[in-house]
Amino acid sequence: MAIIEEKLEKLGLVLPEKLKAPSGMPLPFSPVRIIGNRAIISGHGPQNPDGTVQQGQGKVGNEISVGIAQSAARDTALSILASLKRELGDLDRITAWVKVFGMVNADPTFPAHPVVINGFSDLILELWGIEAGGHSRSAIGVASLPFGMYVEIEGEVLID
Amino acid sequence: MAIIEEKLEKLGLVLPEKLKAPSGMPLPFSPVRIIGNRAIISGHGPQNPDGTVQQGQGKVGNEISVGIAQSAARDTALSILASLKRELGDLDRITAWVKVFGMVNADPTFPAHPVVINGFSDLILELWGIEAGGHSRSAIGVASLPFGMYVEIEGEVLID
Amino acid sequence: MAIIEEKLEKLGLVLPEKLKAPSGMPLPFSPVRIIGNRAIISGHGPQNPDGTVQQGQGKVGNEISVGIAQSAARDTALSILASLKRELGDLDRITAWVKVFGMVNADPTFPAHPVVINGFSDLILELWGIEAGGHSRSAIGVASLPFGMYVEIEGEVLID
Description:
The structure is a homotrimer. Chain A is of the alpha+beta class. Chain A contains three helices and five strands, in the order αββαβαββ. Chain A has a single domain, classed as CATH 3.30.1330.40. The two termini of chain A are 18 Å apart.
């Protein structure tokens, strides 16, 4: 069995099905775009196991706790891994994480975006280790996100 | 005649002149930066045909309708194509769209950023087709944009 | 002596020490990620010479002046140069600036993000010149930033 998927199974984590976008919301772009050995990852948010979006209401740091947002960031990692698996066939083809850009649907005074996005980074590091899983990262607060999602994350990986 | 420009002409679309930035606002960077076969596109907004910025006032989703914002996203595509043409000489040199990052000057509760940025993606796909025009994409809401613009978009393409 | 560092010294500029993150804020990612000849720069903010973060309170354009924010952008350049020096050993290994993404912790009506981020670009151009120091750039206003920082900047450079 593939190494990364075996690790996911041991952690009891399940990748969501393909994104079912809310109706009236066509998304005419690729979840992952392959350019040579670069795989460019579109903005993803947290999904339910059946592929539907975890829509939200309220701002992180105000109505929404850091814990809930961190969990949304971890679920966003699963959404991204699911898209990468569909595109690459096997997650073991990922040889290095390059970049992660984490956007939090946060209150104007929220100061702890890195803690939220750690929900994403910690899982990637657990799965790939520090050498291949290490990445550059930014974490910021945005004014709003599609469907009220608490987190949206995009990035880039290198593939074999 | 160049293929892409012929398509633009058939659509009745005209590329704006070189950006005329508002006074007191020096912009010391390249609209497009070429690095090998990568062309990295700076943040652009909607321009008028004479090159001036379409300045705005108000937030998308509140004072500003989705339709107006979508039209601004389409005009931003024209701004970017104009910069690419000035830099590359011929838009047919673009062999693949890589990435599009779409930022909407939106209300904190706005949920439909993808619909706005589709004004950009739909035109690119119409001009280049799904193979070369396909791209990874993120769409988010930001707190404010230069000159009150409703949309700012940056991206990357591959060139010949 | 290295060329860029000599220029920094002539300008009387000192690079800050390694980032001392506020307590309870683990940052499990690389300040700079090297992928072949690309160096991908994580989101940085302004630091004090001892490496601590210049935390802030208030929004640029409202409580915080453009001048203060511009100075924060210049200090962010120093933070980034310090990280690049630690990673590369010598700043002269940077052969080209590729991309700069500048985020301002701004008021919803703030229109002058480019002026703020010029605090960053002007220094880079002074140090590397227009050929190697030229870069693509975006400047936007975000809803909030870690630790209340007034500016966060990420980017990419090419290395030898």
